[in-house]
């Protein structure tokens, strides 16, 4: 029996709204065409990594759905909106996301190649952070009562570890890992383990260990230039994590807790030997005559006023962000013994209720205070990127419960966010050409309505992404094949070009 040949998915550009309807964006028809062309070229870069044509079709469909203006960006609303009310089609789409045996790792690596091409610079920054996904039930992979930053308390949730690249040119996600709580490796969870399809070779890793694993993989691939790794105190308080970064020949800029202990000068050490009363001492220790270490909050009180210097950090939504910085060479405490010599950096906000943040860095002595100021301003995008991904491409809007499904969803979200980064780059260039030919590094064009779609490096965000998203519609169903599992499209206003990106 002959099967009806599937037509390839193409990106449909939305027609102008009927008279009297308010348009959802302020982009011109030429901007719409550019967006459609970019999406087609972007999709083509990844389709060769999927083995089957059906997988390529669903890949294009789901990516377009994440970039659409749907209120709920899960499989079923996408299918109902563009492929018709068919249970079999919904199940087929859900199978693609949650159970189909396609690998997300090659897609992620290709995305890293693009990030290196579009945003890479030698002193780029890799940011490590976790993000929670609240869940109501107990059947989703990795779900357990644990601290969830999304709700600010311990809640039933999944926890993902993410790394993001930040440079003067912008920011984009690089990789992700699902954190499995230690309880999931006990006998009580074996049935859930099997039901979620977790590979047998998966072993328990802490969140800092997962972050270090991803960074080590980046270093091994050697396609993305970066020198710095930043993190918050959740990772900075783990010495093994910091030492692992140093072992990779990278410089960490890690926030630490207020009670982190350091010496101003490296104390002398007593080697193992004969102790008091004839008892042997098996381990080295700090000499009793050495001065005790300081806590970071004690040390900051001893810094003279002349060592504090005011610096501009970045342009924020409420104006320029300015803070005072001080840097001191210290020796951190590692299991009661002195660790490697490093920097202690203090950042103090201005105002009557000033707040002090504490950081440690293994950067060499040749680094200046301005280097730390720059890196501190480049570590904020991880929070913005997670917020954008959840709010604009539906990173947290998924219903799959499996190990494969979670990684498929995160890989798709990573690519959708990267496409918005690509659009920002494209429209930024267009904006600089059309509206701001004389812009400088400290350009204030973001206050000009004509340049609202795209902004300059250093103050760029993806705040215009919702407008761009809603102008990119996923393909629509062919009226002659409604209810089938194949993904097709009506002949609406179609723009097709050859891909012009190069890896």
Write a compact overview of the structure shown.
This protein has 503 residues and is α+β, with helices and mostly antiparallel strands. It is built from 14 helices and 19 strands.
pLDDT averaged over residues: 80
Percentage of residues assigned to helices: 25-40%
Shape: globular
Largest sheet, in brief, is:
13 strands, mixed
Distance between the termini: 42 Å
Supply Rg: 26 Å
Class computed from helices, strands and strand pairing: alpha+beta
Q: Which strand-content bin applies to the residues?
A: 15-25%
Number of DSSP helices? Answer: 14
Task: Give the strand tally.
Answer: 19
Low-confidence stretches: 1-25, 432-503
Walk me through the topology.
Blueprint: E1 12-13, H1 29-47, H2 53-66, H3 75-82, H4 87-98, H5 105-119, E2 125-134, E3 144-148, E4 153-167, E5 170-179, H6 190-195, H7 207-221, E6 228-231, H8 233-236, H9 239-247, E7 251-256, E8 261-263, E9 269-270, E10 273-274, E11 280-281, E12 285-286, E13 294-295, H10 296-300, E14 309-316, E15 319-334, E16 337-338, E17 342-349, E18 356-361, H11 369-377, H12 381-392, H13 403-434, H14 465-469, E19 472-473
Parallel strand pairs: 2-6, 6-7
Antiparallel strand pairs: 1-19, 2-4, 3-4, 4-5, 7-18, 8-13, 8-15, 9-12, 10-11, 14-15, 15-16, 15-17, 17-18
């Amino acid at each position: 029996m002959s099967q009806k040949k599937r037509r390839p998915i193409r990106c449909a550009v939305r027609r102008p709204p009927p008279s009297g309807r308010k348009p959802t964006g302020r982009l011109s028809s030429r901007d719409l065409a550019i967006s459609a062309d970019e999406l087609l070229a972007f999709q083509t870069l990844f389709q060769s990594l999927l083995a089957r044509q059906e997988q390529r079709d669903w890949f294009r469909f789901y990516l377009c759905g994440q970039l659409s203006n749907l209120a709920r960006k899960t499989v079923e609303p996408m299918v109902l909106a563009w492929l018709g009310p068919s249970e079999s089609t919904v199940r087929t789409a859900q199978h693609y996301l949650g159970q189909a045996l396609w690998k997300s790792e090659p897609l992620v690596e290709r995305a890293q190649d693009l990030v290196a091409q579009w945003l890479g610079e030698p002193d780029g920054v890799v940011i490590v952070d976790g993000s929670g996904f609240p869940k109501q039930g107990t059947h989703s992979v990795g779900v357990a009562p644990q601290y969830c930053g999304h709700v600010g308390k311990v809640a039933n949730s999944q926890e993902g570890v993410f790394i993001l690249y930040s440079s003067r040119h912008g920011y984009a996600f690089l990789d992700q890992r699902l954190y499995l709580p230690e309880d999931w490796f006990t006998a009580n969870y074996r049935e859930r383990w099997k039901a979620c399809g977790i590979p047998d070779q998966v072993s328990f890793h802490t969140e800092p260990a997962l972050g270090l694993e991803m960074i080590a993989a980046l270093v091994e691939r050697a396609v993305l230039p970066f020198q710095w790794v930043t993190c918050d105190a959740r990772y900075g308080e783990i010495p093994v994590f910091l030492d692992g970064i140093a072992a990779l020949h990278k410089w960490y800029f890690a926030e630490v807790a207020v009670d982190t202990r350091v010496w101003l000068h490296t104390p002398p050490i007593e080697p193992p030997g004969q102790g008091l009363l004839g008892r042997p001492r098996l381990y080295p220790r700090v000499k009793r005559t050495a001065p005790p270490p300081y806590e970071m909050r004690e040390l900051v009180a001893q810094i003279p006023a002349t060592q504090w210097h005011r610096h501009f950090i970045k342009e924020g939504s409420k104006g320029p962000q300015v803070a005072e910085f001080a840097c001191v060479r210290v020796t951190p405490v590692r299991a009661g013994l002195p660790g490697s010599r490093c920097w202690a950096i203090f950042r103090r906000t201005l105002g009557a209720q000033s707040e002090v943040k504490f950081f440690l860095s293994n950067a060499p002595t040749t680094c200046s205070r301005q280097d730390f100021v720059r890196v501190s301003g480049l570590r904020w995008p991880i929070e913005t990127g997670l917020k954008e991904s959840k709010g604009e491409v539906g990173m947290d809007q998924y219903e799959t419960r499996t190990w494969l499904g979670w990684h498929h969803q995160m890989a798709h979200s990573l690519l959708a966010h990267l496409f918005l980064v690509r659009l920002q780059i494209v429209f930024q260039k267009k904006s600089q050409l059309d509206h701001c030919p004389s812009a400088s590094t400290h350009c204030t064009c973001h206050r000009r309505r004509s340049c609202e779609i795209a902004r300059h490096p250093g103050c760029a965000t993806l705040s215009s992404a919702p407008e761009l998203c809603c102008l990119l519609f996923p393909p629509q169903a062919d009226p002659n094949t409604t209810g089938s599992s194949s993904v097709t499209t009506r002949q609406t206003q179609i723009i097709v070009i050859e891909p012009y990106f190069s890896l």
